[in-house]
Each structure stands twice: as C-alpha cells, then as structure tokens.
Amino acid sequence: DLLIGCILAISGNLLISISLNVQKYTHMKNEALGDQIHYTKDPLWWIGLVLMAVGEIGNFSAYGFAPASLVAPLGTTTVVANIFLAAIFLKEKIRAEHLFGSALTVIGAFLIVTFSSSKEKVFEGSEVTEALKTMTFTVYIIIEIIVLGVVLFLLYKVKMKKVVIYLLIADIIASITVICAKAVSGMLQLTFEGYSQMSYPGLYIMAIAMVVSAVIQVKWITFNMYFTAWLFATINVGEVQPKGEVSHLTDTDREPILPTDVVYHASDDTLFSEGDQQQQNYGATTDST
C-alpha cells in the first residue's frame, strides 16, 4: 500500500508540474500577442487544467494508501521536476538560491518521512466529526483565518504586492485542502471496504471544503504565474502540503522534528523570494532570457 501511495503521489505531482508549466506558457504566449485573449479561451490552458485535475486525483488517491506524513512531502517531486521544466520550456534561469532552496525543501521532506510513523489510523465518519470539534482543530482554523485576514489586508489595503503575499495565500488554502483530502479519502476507503460512511455529514462537509479550496487555489496559482518566476511559484505549491498536517485528521503522533522541517521550509521560501525581487511587477512578463 505504501508503494502504491508513493507512486500515485509522485505521478500526480509530476503531472501537476507539467500542467502548471503549460498554463504558464499559455500566459506568456498571450502576453506576447498584440491582441490578447482571455486565457480561458485558449485550448492549451484547458489542457493544462485537465492535467492538473488528473494529477490532483492521483494525489488524492495516494492519501488512501499511505499516511499523509509520507504522501505530502513527496510534493518535493514538483520542485525537482520544475527546475528543469521551467528552464527548458519557459527559459527561466536557475539561480543558486533556487538550488539551495530546493535542497532545504528536500531536507525538510526527508526529516518528515524519516521521523514520522509509517502507519496511521483511518478515521471513520464519527471520528472525523469529533476531530472537527476538538480544541486543537479549532485553534488551528482560527490561526489560519487570522493569518489569511492579515495577508489579505496587506494585499488589498496596504497594496503590498510581494511574491510572498500571493504564495502565503496559496499556502494557507492548500493546507485546508490537504486536511480535507485525507479525511475524505479515509472515509471513502472504509466505504469501499464495506463500512459505509455515506451517512456521516462530515464526509460531505470535508468534500465540499476540499473542492472549494482546490478551486480557489487555481485563482491564486494563476496570480503567481503572472506575478513571479514560475520556478518559484511551483516550488511553493509543491512543498506547501506538509504544513497542513497539524490537525487530528492527519498524524497525531508527530515527532518533535516538525519544527525543524518548518524552519527548512520557511528558509527556502525566503531564499526564493529574495532571488526573485526583480520580478515583482504584477502582470509583467517573467524572465525568459
């Protein structure tokens, strides 16, 4: 089961990386045209969206075979793949800080995989409902909302159009998607094994939240494609997932190594943002030389 989960996660992340590069190429091609069309009218953009959907299905399925603590760090597959995809197809430069930041991301993922449990409990509907009522989950959601509110205030009121602002929004939303995906995949797994979970409202609540948060991510990922070098944006999307594992809906026996992983991820975000400050004109064509 672990092998199947890892294969699904890696394959899904590779497809997502390809899809996002296809969509970025669509935006770059559109910007080069004198008479621009909306990106949703370009068939190539829709091809990228379909590839993304297939990749996300692979990621979602992986949570049914392997623990979230093993599946989520495999998002670093996107980092490694996109370094070469962005350089080859989008002509983006590979800077030293990109490589160093990628190394920190991989180290953080390695620490999670090494020090986390290889087994975890699959939550049934009643347990998901109880988990949603716990103080830990409530505090986590409150913190997410507060941070998101602060970031949106900085974006729209202070007009702080920084790379990190857009990526933080995508990070926060993605963490919700991961938690919901793990809960839904677990309940569906139990249903397929003969223990129906269809009568529990938690299944539908988490499924709706998963879909809505995933759709919202598309908007902010699109902003990232306009706003910054795509190498940076995709690296962030690939490595955000482990940050969502603070809930009872994922691993409850996480080792103390998690803060170290967070430091590694925060460090690579800082490195990438510092390396791309010259590309912060929203809507401008990204570096293609």
Task: Give a verbal description of the structure.
The relative contact order is 0.17. Residues 228-289 have low confidence and may be disordered. By secondary structure, this protein is mainly alpha-helical. The chain has one domain (2-279). The chain has helices at residues 2-32, 43-62, 68-71, 76-89, 96-115, 125-132, 135-156, 163-192, 201-227, 230-239, 258-275. It contains 11 helices and no strands. α5 (96-115) runs parallel beside α10 (230-239) and α7 (135-156) runs antiparallel to α8 (163-192). 71% of the residues lie in helices and 0% in strands. The chain crosses the membrane at residues 6-23, 44-64, 70-90, 99-117, 137-156, 163-184, 204-222. InterPro entries: EmrE-like, Mg_trans_NIPA. It is found in: Membrane.
Brief summary of the model shown:
The protein has 289 residues and is mostly helical.
Task: Please specify the SSE layout and strand pairing.
Blueprint: H1 2-32, H2 43-62, H3 68-71, H4 76-89, H5 96-115, H6 125-132, H7 135-156, H8 163-192, H9 201-227, H10 230-239, H11 258-275
Helix pairs in contact: 1-2, 1-4, 4-5, 4-10, 5-10, 5-11, 7-8, 8-9, 9-10
List keywords for this structure.
71% helix; disordered C terminus
Q: Give the SSE order as H and E letters.
A: HHHHHHHHHHH
Judging from the principal axes of the Cα atoms, what is the shape? globular
Q: Into which percent range does the helicity of residues fall?
A: over 70%
Q: Could you tell me how far the N terminus lies from the C terminus, measured between alpha carbons in angstroms? A: 44 Å
Largest sheet: none
Radius of gyration: 19 Å
